[in-house]
Structure formats: C-alpha cells, structure tokens
Amino acid sequence: MITLEYVYVFAGLVFGAFAVMSARDRTNPEGWGNAAFWGLFAASFLFGSHIGNFANGVLVLGLILVGGFGFLGRGKPVAFDPAERRASAAARGNWLFVPALIIPAIALIGTLAFKYVVFAGTPLVDPKQVTVISLALGIVIALGVAMLWLKPRPDVPLEEGRRLIDMIGWAAVLPQMLASLGAIFALAGVGRAVGTLATQYIPLDQPLVVVVVYCAGMAVFTAVMGNAFAAFPVMTAAIGLPLIVHRFGGNPAIMASIGMLSGFCGTLATPMAANFNIVPAALLDLPDRYGVIRAQIPTAGLLLLINTVLMSVLVFRFGTHA
Beta-carbon neighbour count of residue 127 at 10 Å? Predict the structure, then answer.
C-alpha cells in the first residue's frame, strides 16, 4: 500500500537538497542558516514518523530559533539567460501552463479513482490519504513531463525551487504550524472556553444571532491564527455544534461548509496567512508589503456578509427541525 510516508520521504529529499545547496552557496552570507533551517525541515519529513513526539518538538524549536533570530538569507542562485527564457516562452505560448495544470488534474483523477484500485484485497493507496498522495503524484508527473518537454539542465528544478523557497523564507512552514496550533487548541479545550464566554456576554437565544457570531468568529479566529483549518475546530466546538446544530437543529454540512468559507474571509485580511498574503508581495517585489491585504479587505467583508446571509437562510431550512 502506498502511504503518506512516501510523500514525506519525497518532500524530505527535496528540502534536504535545498539544505545542501544552501550550505554550498558562497553568495549567501546566511547560507549556513538556510542550510540548518531546511535541513531541520527535511529531517522532520524523513524521520518525524520514527523519532517520537519529544524529538519532533525539538526539531520545531530548532526551526523557530533559526527563523526567529533572522538566520535566513538570500543567495544568488545560478542565473539563467533571460533572453533564452523569453524566446522559449514565445515559442511555446500558453502550452507552458500544461505542466502546472497536470498537478490538479492528477490530484482530482487520483482522488476519484484510487479508492477503487485494490490488489489482493488491499487498496493500492491509503484511502485516508488518497488526495495528498494523488497531489504528490501529480507533482512528480508534471515535473517529468516538463523535463522531457523543455529539456532543461538536471539541476534547474532544484535551483529554481531553492530560489523560490529562499524568497519565501520561514513563512513556507507557517501553514503546517498554524494547523497544528488549531489541533492543540481543540485538545486544550479552547473551544469550550470560547463557548462559555460567548454564552455569558452575548444573547445567543436567537438563531440569527448565533449564525452571526459563528461566521464572524470564524473570520476573526482565522485572522488571528492565520488558518481557517485551525480556527474551525475552535469555533465549531464553541458555537457551531452546541448551538447551531444541537440547540436549533441546523444542518451540520451547511454549517461546516459555509463556516469554512467565512473563515477564508479572515484569511484574505491577515498577515498571519503569510503564504497567501505576504509571500506574493515578496515574490513580486511589491513596494507595499501589505498591499495584497489592502486590496483584498473589501472583498473579504462582502464575502463574509454574503456567507452570513446564506447560512442564516439555509442552515435551519434544511436542518433536523425543518
């Protein structure tokens, strides 16, 4: 059976290559800092499933220390001729998007098809991780197609990958850390504490008020935590399940789906979602570091209003008390 461990090994080898290349980069004054950071990150993928919680915690602390004290920098990866790139792009046109489109296509096909592929009674792919495994497979296939088609030097993918990851820096690991934070909050009972506070200070005896508090809370917690997946277990344990579903008979599927969309409104408006809002500004060298957020805030507010209206109309109409 193909399990998530194969994806971990693949990711670990890639980040390990970035670490080695960073250590050898004499143009980056912080090259050893980059090597340590991506080396630790690679170790978490390669050995995380085998070394226990304490050792994994030490790896995370190491990442925080290296990134938090500013030991990351940018070097000058091998330069590729801009004129050659423009000529290649002009010759191939929009066909250059094919490798990028292969990734979601394989991820979708694999998600739908792999669950039916069984050998000797054993699934070919772990059914619980089929989407992530299919995504990784799509990346490998897309890379192979690009290499066969474009015929770059063998080191080009890693050089370009290291260039991008150096531009992103420590923010590349933020989504994983914030998602873990959400799980920790849920286990620590933060959702129950938030629910207790909400019932003490907000009149939650009206369904409409509960919906407004839930949707707004999802957006606010996402803005604070930087990740809607981290905010979801907290707000759902506090408001969604006990009040919308159990007290007022709301539909849990509608509550969860629109609640997540409400959380994504907070994603649009926070620097904590660095991979969405800070990284693009860095990659495009925008003069305003928070320009992406400023442009997205009006859209976030409008979407949050629409989500709140949709939930108030739909969640109880198709609920258990309907």
Answer: 11
